[in-house]
Every structure is written in C-alpha cells, then in structure tokens.
Amino acid sequence: MQFGLSESQEFLKDSARKFFAGECPSAEMRRLMETETGYDAALWSKLTDQGYTGIIYAEEYDGVGLGKVELMLLLEEAGRALLPGPFFSTVVLAGSVLDAVGSPSHKKKYLAPICRGEARATVAILESSASWNLRDVQLTAVNGKLSGEKLFVSDAGVADFILVVAGNGVFIVKAKAKGLKISPMLSMDLTRKLCVVEFKDTPAELLGPTTNLPRAFDIASAALAAELVGGMQRTLDLTVEYAKTRKQFGKPIGMFQAVQHQCADMYLETESSRSAVYYAGWALEENAPEASTAVSIAKMYSSDAARTVGNRSIQIHGGMGFTWENDLHLYYRRAKASENAFGDATFHRERIASLVIDAPGVTAKSA
Amino acid sequence: MDLKLTPQESSFRDELRAWLANNVPKDWAEWREKPLEESFPYLRAWQRKLHDGGWAAVSWPKEYGGRSATLMQQSLFWEEMARVEAPPMANSLGLGLIGPTIIACGTEAQKKRFIPKILSAEEIWCQGFSEPNAGSDLAGLQTEAKLDGDHYIVNGQKVWTSYGWVGDWCELIVRTDSSAAKHKGLTALLVDMKSPGVEVRPLRQMTGESEFNELFFRDVRVPAENVLGEVNDGWNVAMSTLMYERGSYGARLQLTFNRYISRLIELARGVRRNGRPASEDPLIRQKLAQCSAEIEIMRFNQMRAFSRISATGVPGPEGSIQKIFWSELNQRLQQIAQELLGSYGQLLGGDLHAVDNGLWSYGYLRTRGNTIEAGTSEVQRNIIGHFVLGLPRSY
User: Fold this and answer.
1) Which residues of A touch B5 (CB under 8 A)?
2) Helices marked H in chain B
3) Each residue of B153-180: pLDDT tens digit?
4) What is the pLDDT of residue A361?
5) Partner residue facing A268 (CB), from B6, B300, B324
6) Pairwise CB contact (< 8 Å): A349 & B293
7) ipTM value greater than 0.90
8) CB within 8 Å: B289 and A356
9) Fewer CB within 10 A of the end CB, N or C, for chain A?
C-alpha cells in the first residue's frame, strides 16, 4: 500500500505547478479576471500542448488516458494558480458528462474536439430552485426542443456547445442555436463566470439518459475539491510568509501563538483536505464501491476547510488582507463559489448520511 | 499511489489473521471492565502468548525479536488486533515507546539486559517524564541526579506516570547539569523501580479512576551504566520516545472510532426525536455524517503519513497533525453521543438505566484528557508552527 504519489505523478504535479506559475501568474490571472469570459486563446493552446485538455480521456478520442489521481493533481495546481477561464467547465465537467453519458459517436464528435483544444463547453444544471438534487430538474425537452431557463451555468459565454441536463435526458445545444440567449450573472468569484442560459424553442440533440450523470458529477465534485486544496495551499503559503515577515511589537507576528496556532490549523485543514481528495481520486479511478462516499467526504471537508482557511488567512493578514490588491480575497471568492457548486458541505453530509446511516440492509428507513 | 495491499502486506495480514483466530482469548469481554490491577496478570499472559507467536513487537528489528515490519504492516497489525477485539498488551509502553528508544540509543549490554524481558512482559516499564512544574515545558524538569562514584543519586518527583503501580523499570528523565541551558543538562536513566527510596502513589483523575501515578525519588541510587544514550543528551532521547508516542497512537484508534460511530448510528435508530427516530433527524444526521467522514480522513492522513515516513524510518513532526486530529475528533464524537442520549448520557456504569454500562458518560469525561496527554494541543500546534511551517519559536 502506498498513499504517496508515484514518480510520474510527482512529475506531472511539479510540471503543472511550473506551467501555471509561468503562464498564469497573479498579474495574468487578474488580467483575465477583468475580461468578459476569462478565456484566452493563447493560454488555451498552451494548455492543449501540455495535454491538459485531454488528460483523463481515452486516446481514441484524442485524450491522454491518465487516471483520476492525475486529474486531482492537475486541478490542485490549477487551483493554486486560480486559473481563470473555462478549463474546469470544459475539460472536467463537460468532458466527464460526455464520457459518462455519450455514445462513441457523440464522443468522437464532441469529446475529441475538447481533448484537441478546439472546443469550449459547459454543462447547464441548476434552475431557479438552485437545487443540486437531480430530482428537482424541471426543464424537459419536447420534440427535440428546449424552452426554459438554466441558472449558474459556468463559462457559458465562451462555450461552443452546452450540455443541458433536462428531466428526460442530457441534451446538446450548440452556441449558435436558435432561441438561445446567454447573459452574465454578477457573482462573487471573478475568475469563473456564471451565466443565465435561456432557451426558446431551441433545437437540442439528445446525448443520452441522465442515469450516468452522478458518476460525472462525482468526478467534477472531486476535481473542484482538488482545486480548493490548491487554493488552500496557496493561501497557507502566503499567510505563513506574511507571518514571518510582518512585524508588530518588534516581533514577526508569526511568533505570537494566537497567530501561529491559526497557521497550524490551516495546515491541518489543508493537509486533511488533500488526503481526502487524493483518496477520492483513487477510489474513482478504481471504481471502488465507496467512491461516492469518498467524493462526498472530500467535497464536504474541503468546502468547509477552504472557507475556514480563507477566514484565518485574511484575519492574520490584518488590514492588508482586506485590500483589493492582495490576492487572498480572490481565493476566498473562488472558495465560496466552489463550496456551493455540486452541493455544499451540508448537502454532502446528508449524502454521506444516506450512504452510511441508511445503508441498505442495515436499516428499514421509515417514510 | 496504490492503496491495494502488496503481496507481502497481504501475506503478513493473512498469517496474523490465522494466528489470531487460533489464539485470541475468548473471555476478554468478561475481563475488560475489571480494574486493571485485577486483569493485569491476564494481560501479561496474553502478551507472553503474542511474544511466543512472534507478534509482540512487529515493528522491532528481527535481531531484537521483532519482524522488521513496515509501517503499513504495523498499521495492519493494529487493525487486525482491533478487528478481533484483542486485549491490549501488558507492557504497552515498553513495547511501543521505551523498547524502540533503547534499541535506538542504548548500549549492547542494555539491549541484551532489557529487550527480552520487555518482549516477554516479565518486566513492565513506565515513563518518568512530566513533573508538577514541568508539563508542556518538559525541559524545565527539576528531578536531579548527582554522580556519586559509579552511581547517580536521584531526588525529585514525577507525575502522570502510566503503569507506575506495576512498573518494574522506569525511563526517567533527570537533570544532571543544572548549570547548562535547560535542554542541555538532561539525562535519561533506566531506573529499577524496586530501588530503595522509590515511592509510588495513585493519582485519582476526573473520571474517578487512577490510571496514573505520582512517583517520588528520595536518594535513589542508580548505577551509572544505566544511563540511556549520552550523559546530558537526555532531551534528544526523550524526544525520540515522544515521537514514537505521537506517531503510533493514532494508528490504533481507527477501528475503535469506527466501533463508536457504528454504535452511535445504532443508538440513533432507537432514540426518538421530534416524533421520529433520531437517525432521521436532519441535525443528528449531519453530525453523525461529519463525524464518520472525519474518522475516514483520520485514516487517510495516517496512510499518507506512513507512506511519507516509510522512507526515513522515524516518525516526524507530521505526527502532530494526527494527535490534534484524533484527540479533538474523539471529544466531538463524545459530545454527539451526549446529545443523542440526552438524560441517559450522564448515567454511570453500574446504574440500572445506563446505556452501554456507562461507556458514554465515561468517554465524555475521559476524552478531556485526550487533548492534554501525550503533548497538549497547544504544544502540538507549536510543533507544527515551528518545525513544519518554519515560523519563529513562540516561547
């Protein structure tokens, strides 16, 4: 048994860290954040050259065929750099929905262009109920057409096609489709843009039934948790550095236990989240029976931890942490958005409860 | 990253499973609630049996009677022991902490003299570290040892000594140079507890039991050959003992905690809240789910820490995260139990209406000690702050 990363996994993580540090440093991240979509064609083509756009998909769809642990490592590093733009929406979310739901011909047509870096995409899930429970989806396709509205759709403004979760299946809507209207939502996370997507008799192609969606959502949830881990690590590093250099009362503030112990807790929360995320990645890769529980553990714990780590970091930075120019609030904003996406901690605790407390054969749950 | 067992790990586990199936005592349940004074001969016999089977100290090098087990195998060992609800071993400090320290720091003569009897439970060991005025600030300890010919004369007092009442030998940290800086003037001595001038008194704790003792030393003569490690290097010897303590403890708790949470889930089905079983109450479900998730994360952290330190062979400061994690988790778990049981939670063992014979009222009180013993949470956070994150020392 070996919970450490293999040599090739270390290599991937290391080179991803260097790549993002070089191609998306803080100044570039802030530049992209100020744009309408956060998308940059030049950066996208570099992501493609690295093989990141096809990381976990099969070679027959022009993917690289790496595993879910590798996906976690890549997203951890993307999260550390607070990579703006549609990478998560396209590669992780739309990619795994296509992979889980689509037929081979769909994958050739839609997944392969994602892997080759030619297409941007996203998945439209939430409606006005803002419920992550698939049972609450109301939108239904009638005669191959959609009419209605989806909210909180990430990066729809730059998507070449949108996968739409409807009550009677998952549908593909092209960006130029008739009756499709996309408008931005003003939201906290400035690096990942959310949109309202409206359909009016919009032609939609059936991708497949929603049966396999939970698998794709599990991958997306774990990957988001991995991003949070990277964000927490960056936040911790910035904070420890600040606590070592900032002096008050003639001493570095990191010498005061009220500060130092908060840093220790940030470390505990970051490392524990990382353990949970890596385990979830491994369980997904192995199709372990406990994979869904492991994903919920990771998403639940890192959602709470990222918020707490952010709280501590801003507090330790004092007035400096409250400024616009300091990057902390950008991580803090992302943490809040990711906390909610694919279910917050409360949602996942209930899912854990249903898996652990109501396990079949253990209890007969009354109505 | 590969979390499947290797063939070596599987065969280690299978061999142990087979041995335990044939040898684990069937009547431990009848003994476990008796006072330790009464059950101690039973635990000695059990350790003897494990030793005869070659299982008493799997982590120790083969040449000293162990199996040179990897950390993963050690972890499997404690998992299997917990799975069959095996009794603990009588000489747990000797096997877990002091034996490894003697193997690491001791002379050949000391190893030959002490190691076999630690394994066989013929000689029980205790630890004389904390003092009334030296708890977290261990290096400030005042028990002194003065050289007189080929003996040290020891005077002072130790406190919170586990197994003091049954201890044959003690790893005692004393001050041998009062002029040196406080970390530099300490020495580790191996002290025969039957020496004249050693007095052992029980220390009653808030649970009502006396797990620990106070030790008094009045002009106790200790042969100079019983110095463990170098004279005035006792701080490093003590630290290596504490690293074993912080590193190994968490590994054994995994299954205990899992047993607790399973039992709480079971209890939640029987307790009614707002007109339905507590297991269907959203708030209780949230708390049970949080707790069971954290138990899993404790396991993941342990596996990661083991993988990381497999290379170096010695537990590092990462152990501090585990110590904070399990101790605070155990307190939260006990609080959930109290919320679930309501008025029943306060009933002590022996009461007619007590749930699980008072396990949960006992646990509620006992776990307050968890964040204090084996290094307080504050000390653990200092260790992370300074040794892991590189922040300046706060004291």
Assistant:
1) 1
2) 7-23, 28-31, 36-52, 71-83, 92-93, 99-105, 108-119, 234-270, 282-309, 319-341, 359-366, 377-383
3) 999 999 999 999 999 999 999 999 999 9
4) 44
5) B324
6) yes
7) yes
8) yes
9) C
